[in-house]
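ESCALATION

Customer reports they have been waiting on this structure for their group meeting. Please prioritize. Original submission:
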Amino acid sequence: MFLAPWFLGSALVIMSVSGVPASVKIAPGSMRPDQGHAVQVQIPHRFGLFYLPAGKGKRSERSRFRLYENDRRLRPDYAPRDTIQASGQGASQHMGDTIFFSASDNSDPVTNGRHYRATFKIFLRPIAAGIGILLGFAVSWWSLRGLGWLNVPGKKFVAAWLKAGYREAKLRSKPEVSRRHVLAYLAIWMFIAIIGTAVVSQITYPRYDAKRSGDRSLLERVNYYLAHSDHYDVIFLGDSQSHLGIHPILINQAAGIRGYNLTYPSTYLPLQYAVISDLAPKIPKNTTVVLDVTFQNFQKKNDLSIDNWYPVSPKLALQMWLWRLPQTGLLNNVLFFGPLTHFLATRAETRNDLASHLGQPLAALTASAQAASEAKNSDVDNPSFFRTESGVLWRNESAATSPEDNGVFLNDIPPPPNLPQDNEINARLIDFYSKVPGIAAVETIEGNGVTNSAMLSFIDGSSCRMEVTPDFFRRQQVVQPLSETQAKVYPIPAIEPAKVKIFSAMLDALKAQGLHVVVNAVEEAPMFYQHPLRTKQIRDRLKEIVEPLAKARGYDFIRVDWDAFKDTDYFDVTHLNCMGAQKLAPMLAGKLDSVIRR
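Update from on-call: job pushed to the front of the queue and completed.
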């Protein structure tokens, strides 16, 4: 026991000099627009007894700052700020207590549905390390003197202390340990660890009720659809571009269908495959499945993370691994949705939460006090309103589960009224849109103290982003165009073979159940492609990949006239805004009306 302070002292010195790893989730509401492609985020520089090094250049690099987008590391880490603003493409920089970064595809990090987190090293404050070491020595010295082992003046106690510790270690007898005893000991602790993990997993495992509005999780909406599948004859599957751009409530009447949107942000082909594998045997035979696809779905080195939005079964995970799918998060997804293994997938988050509470024990009380203070503001004094990380949320809970109003349709989505940017704007926007039929939730989105948009979620499972300050979004749409010469030689991104196999398996799973499928090609904003020639090249390449796979199984392949869309129909470079979605609705309804089997 007398050597314990030495180990404690060494640990404190290491934490003070080398640091310990830490991470921070970057919430959309904490992001502030900078210039060009860049956004900035303020991060704390104090973590209880630890601190994050501040400064520029090498002093900042001491923190080993790394930024991740859906668990994929963004590079370069220490790019100049003007490079982040002008070029973007995932460039980032940590300067003092501020992070400047851009999305990997130059989309808006606030709304692209991706998750960002920063990892870095935090260091124990030298004064804390010094106090800890002195206290350890003092306790050890006091113990030795109390035992009568240290009859020397205080100034020589270190040498005597070491000698006493050495003598204790040398005189300590070594017990006889058999291999059987060691294995039994390990087995007991392994059993305790397994039982503990299973129990904690059961306690912390999330529950997903059946909810239908577009702001709900994918699992909640899948559960809702399974409970009310007889109310729908068309379902849409895809990722964020479909979730924000395709609205059955705008399409149903024109196409003569009863549609439901089962898309979700960052639900790329692997998760869509998992959804289809589970749903296909349970979908009524008279249902048409519309698969929305983009070129990015098949692109190599794109969409490299599998999020925990929907469970991937161990069988599917093994299959995709054998196909050499180059994505991260597959194993974590399997563990996350395992009732007995859930804790293993969330242990890092739990550890960070525990460390945060230990380092700042009053943080929860402070947050509660802050929330109570914010609740007194005029825009959140309604009990139906909730302050979120990005703004204010209103939900119509009665519209979350009942399928009785599925016949509701909209001819158009009204634009926002002209409102002053004051403390009442959130409440007034919510009051305006809560009266629109079919809207189940409204969330205002703020930036730099200005409410720039509202996320409208419908009873059909979709959502759209209504621009309140269009100029804000036009400033964010910055993509360097290509000259005609550059467009001719600029290579088309390579295709990932594993993703093509997954898409083929999705079609086969639906074919095995005798379901009718329509494959719908979706495109990004014109500026995303940088040149009209490149738009045509990528459009033709997607058709070359997808159309033969669909036709070979007797399915339809459709594409609306995407040349009719402008950059202003998108709120970034990939996602339609509400006005763009409204423009798409009659075009898509016409296409669907001609191919859906009645």
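Sent to customer with the following note: The longest helix spans residues 179-204.
Escalation resolved.
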